[in-house]
Amino acid sequence: MLRRAAPAIQRVGPSGRAKISQASPDSRLFPIVRDLVVRDSSCAGPILIELAPSILSADFAHLADQVERATAGGASVIHVDIMDGHFVPNLTIGPPVVKSLRQATRLPLDCHLMIENPDEYIAAFAESGADWISVHQEVCRHLNRTLNLIKSHDCRAGVVVNPATPVETLSEVLDIVDYVLVMSVNPGFGGQKFIPETLGKIRKLADIRAQRGYAYRIEIDGGVALDTINEVVRAGTEILVAGNAVFGKGDPRQNAAALLEAAKSASLQRV
Ligand code: DX5
Ligand code: ZN
User: Fold this and answer.
1) Nearest alpha-carbon partner for 113 in 154, 87, 88, 81
2) pTM exceeds 0.85, yes or no
3) Residue 17 pLDDT more than 70?
4) How far is the CA of 220 from the centre of ligand 2 (A)?
């Protein structure tokens, strides 16, 4: 069954739920995002480009402040990287930190699970305040079941593919996912070099969505910075995860604003 095409304007509120609206997005919360609703000539209607800073590169001793600064710069989603030391060679955080973050921001929390056996932890993340939960195709034996489990907790369900995983492996779940996350580095660490070959998957996902009338959004993660954002946006990405480029050095507010400005210019160049 085909899902309806993207709405005329996607308004993303603090809960992370996209709402159909004729009004502009809340200019107090999303001052720059408002300007990033652009017309996409390759698809049916306007798209919304959002910046999702990854806290992986933030100063964890001052997490609330770091998130607040990035939000002031126009970030509208907070990306939270969960690593288990098995699926990826690194360990990060779990539900307690998500719970604390939930108290510190009204923005949607986009929890990227880089863990094995994600089904065992989905309830804990949802109860801690995750709004969006994504799982890797590579670890899910029963991907349809896992995505429906995320939805049963009233969270947006995303599926992630590593650089070596083709989008064709997602063919049978694209009608039920809310977003697809394309890894543009091998997951595990922040500050890695962008892999440009992954952009072909962004284009492919945009084409499939247009052909089949699906409604998922397209997110990218890894190596997004001022020197790569132009090609990332022009390929059709809508949700831009950036860790090092926001929190690595300097002021997260200025960094976020600069990235969104660059995204805006790139979106105007799309052909
Ligand atoms: C990598 C993580 C990313 C990472 C991105 O495994 O999933 O979210 O934080 O960091 P940058 O933007 O520094 O490449
Ligand atoms: Zn991530």
Assistant:
1) 81
2) yes
3) no
4) 9
